[in-house]
Write a structure and sequence with these properties.
By secondary structure, the protein is mainly alpha-helical. Helix content is 50%, strand content 0%. Among the domains are: 75 residues, no CATH class; 42 residues, no CATH class. It is built from seven helices and no strands.
Length: 202
């Protein structure tokens, strides 16, 4: 019995490692693609600096939005938001997003608030001029349109889940027509397959 447990654990850990490796590799490819488009900083020489598992703030996400849109971003900032100094690097992106109608006019911007997946998806699609499906719930409209355009997979997003940078980079890259996204399950090496066969034969 102890041998069976050991084999099951070994096989499970191997599959988990394969899935994580495939997920990470895809997100690195997406990040490198965006870096080539000058949407994000180029960290291709050290992909750990992409911080793929980190959440993203509103300040950071609006930079991605404006870069995706290719709209002009003036270097000046007139302090439209009380919580965003004109010296803050994110100020120009927030004001450019405001000027282009991507965000609403408010007294505060909340630059350090985290962005959820559905909020990030909306911004990505706005930046790429992809109209959502008509729906009373704007979140469902963006999600269904994104699925139909193959920007996201067929999963349903948790509207309250904060987005991580890897997911944002992957989703942003898939909004480009020249990004080759290959939906492929990681291959199971012969050693792992043999482990499962050995478990089955016990």
């Amino acid at each position: 019995m102890k041998i069976i447990y050991t084999l099951i654990i070994a096989a499970t850990v191997s599959l988990w490692y394969l899935w994580v490796s495939a997920y990470t590799n895809h997100n690195v490819e997406s990040a490198n693609f965006l870096a080539g488009k000058r949407v994000i900083n180029d960290n291709s020489s050290n992909p750990f600096n992409y911080n793929l598992d980190f959440n993203i703030t509103r300040r950071e996400m609006l930079k991605v939005l404006m870069k995706l849109s290719e709209k002009n971003v003036p270097e000046t900032c007139s302090w439209s938001f009380s919580d965003l100094s004109s010296q803050d690097w994110g100020c120009k992106y927030a004001e450019a997003a405001l000027a282009n109608g991507y965000i609403a006019a408010n007294s505060t911007f909340r630059p350090n608030d985290l962005v959820t997946q559905i909020e990030a998806l909306k911004m990505i699609m706005q930046g790429k001029w992809i109209q959502r499906h008509a729906n009373e719930d704007w979140r469902a409209g963006y999600q269904s349109k994104a699925r139909s355009e193959k920007i996201i997979d067929d999963e349903y997003l948790d509207y309250d889940l904060n987005a991580v940078r890897g997911w944002i980079f992957s989703t942003s890259a898939r909004s480009f027509s020249d990004f080759r996204y290959i939906e492929k399950e990681p291959e199971i090496p012969k050693e792992v397959d043999d482990l499962f066969k050995e478990i089955y034969d016990l």
